[in-house]
Amino acid sequence: MLKDLENIADFDKALQDSRETPVYIYKHSSSCNISRGAWRAVQELSEEKPELQFRRIMVRENRPLSTDIAQKLRVEHQSPQIILINNGVPIWSATHYGITRDTIMGALKILKSGEEES
Description:
Elements: E1 2-4, H1 8-17, E2 23-28, H2 33-48, E3 53-58, H3 63-73, E4 81-86, E5 89-95, H4 101-117
């Protein structure tokens, strides 16, 4: 499932949702060619695997929210950037050319292997 983050209440809801299932926060820049490629990977996965939770923020259009997210998560702002949140905490992130279908799915494997070790 893919939803847009438009305000801090949307972000707070995404954090809350991450207590039930991991949530990816994707930061997109509409003026960046690298973002277009990363966005394609996110879109394809959200369509193929609707059980995955994606939230998108349009960075240029909503810079204050993007800054708030970076501060709350304590993850340095990049664009494009994808952050995986579990139980309200960022557990993985990738930027620029590191955002691919394989890396996005690989992040879930890291999460699952951590659960098995517990």
